[in-house]
Amino acid sequence: MVLDPVFLYIPVTNDEKKCFQFDRWVMSVVIAERSAFGIWYLTNRTSEIRESIHRNYSKSLLPVFLLDLSIILPLPQVLVLLAYSQRISGQEFFSLMNLFLVQHGLKVIRLAKLITEWKNSYNLNKWANLTFNFGYLHAANVFGSLWYFFAVQRKAECWKKACTDFTRCGLLPLHCDDSLTNYTFSSDFCSTKTQNATIYDFGIFRDAIQSGVLDQNNFFRRYFPCFQWSLQTLSCFGQGLPLSTNVLENIFVISITITGVVLFFFLIGKVQSETSKVYEIRQKVREIDRWLPFGKLPKKLQKEIKEYQKSKLQTTGVDVEYVVNHLPRHLRNNIKQKLCLDLLKKVEEFGNWSDSSLERLCDVVKPVVFTERSYILREGNPIDQMLFVLQGKLWTYTSRSITGFSSNSGNLNNHLEDGDFSGEELIAWAKADRDSSNLPISTKTIQALTNVEAFVLMADDLKQVLLNIDH
Q1: Which residue intervals of 291-394 are DSSP H helices?
Q2: The pLDDT of residue 405
Q3: pLDDT tens digits, residue range 303-361?
């Protein structure tokens, strides 16, 4: 697709003979490249088309198939070879090449859609973004080649118009290989040195003709001046280009202006987005560093979490639920085992368990976050989970009076804090009757005094682990 616009650089004018010829080297390269692209694209899309047909998606696939077919048709190759072999005239070649411009537009639209699909399906964000970032350069490549091609076309039209008063004008073939003589009669008529638009107005293509770019046999001497003109014109949104009464020329200028504005805002948006994203990543890493349980993890695990966080930016706050749920499975398991294992060992019933049995419990515990003043358990409700406090403070009380609560430290108080637990009644229930669905009833209410981060072990998970250990 990148080399498609190069097709428009194939014709080279000969101002002395008033004709154009083909750059054979450029012609060979772009024909080979576009043919290879067509084969590659067709090969990669065939398997997808067949799969869709087998799934009876043929009706919905038909428009896509027709679009794919239209963009791989060897239209420019055929037109160039026909003109080169003199099967069509120069004027016919210029007219029919407009179909190639339409085809290239369809290809850009189709590939942009495919890139979006690949980005969403295969998580190719980096490559997809890189492709879109080259949109500005590709636009400059396209408009530069169009400026060159339209200038050649405008110059050929001038030659045709200049010879209307001559009897042999009808024999003017425009192709240098067929030129029988030098048509010097049009030198003054098509001259850009007089700057007289009343004789023939070259419009915005005057600079291309006057600079002699169209007559350069070296491809790079044709390409880079046009590319430079396009970059400068896109950057200033087409300002400074002369007014014209030619409709197609006005459409070309309007297209440059709109494309320049759209790409400008797109790039500005990308810069602002990337700047904001970098700031958010740094803030998130700082939040992780300040998260108290994070310091309890091994240094190697801390480094892995930070690296993953930089590659997967999230916008939520940092807590145990965020850290555990937004990491890969192996990191989640490592974190739960490091943070949860010590908490489980504080429970007397779990103190004699082997590390492998405790690790099974760690695999099934779930990270939770309770907001300030929220109720975790109410008096009289079934106890369906064990609670292990990782960070925060909770209040326990009964409907009659505030009661003491036995924590792992053995102190009597009415609060649960870091390292404390509740719901140990579930262990006796699970051991006594594993087939029973009658959960023990809570004799107290538990309410969060601050934001609380904790692990919970659900009753069914506890029962299942005990069953597996016995077997």
Answers
A1: 299-311, 320-325, 329-345, 355-364
A2: 43
A3: 766 666 555 544 444 455 555 555 666 666 677 777 788 888 888 888 778 888 888 88
For residue 281, the one-letter residue type is I
Q: Side-chain half-sphere of 442: how many Cα atoms within 13 Å?
A: 22
Q: At what angle do helices 90-122 and 58-72 cross, to 10 degrees?
A: 130
Cα atoms in the 13 Å half-sphere on the side-chain side of 24: 2
How many other C-beta atoms are found inside a 10 Å radius of the C-beta of residue 203?
Answer: 20
Give the tokens for residue 99.
């179909």
Write the DSSP symbol of residue 407. -
Contact predicate 147/228, CB 8 Å = no
Question: CA 10 to CA 31: how far, in whole Å?
Answer: 11
Q: 406 with 471: CB under 8 angstroms?
A: no
For residues 292 and 391, the answer to whether their CB atoms sit within 8 Å is yes
Asked whether the beta carbons of 100 and 75 are under 8 A apart, the reply is: yes
Token pair belonging to 138:
């590709």
Residue 26 corresponds to which tokens in the numbers above? 């450029």
C-alpha separations of 386 from 383, 419, 445 in Å = 8, 13, 14
Contact 225, 188 (CB under 8 A): no
Tokens found for residue 28 = 């060979």
Q: Which contacts (CB < 8 Å, 24+ apart) does range 85-94 have?
A: 86/173, 86/175, 86/177, 86/178, 89/173, 89/174, 89/175, 90/19, 90/20, 90/156, 90/173, 90/174, 90/175, 91/156, 91/160, 91/174, 93/11, 94/152, 94/153, 94/156
User: pTM to 2 decimals?
Assistant: 0.56
Provide the pLDDT for residue 370. 87
Give pLDDT, residue 183: 54
- Per-residue pLDDT, 36: 86
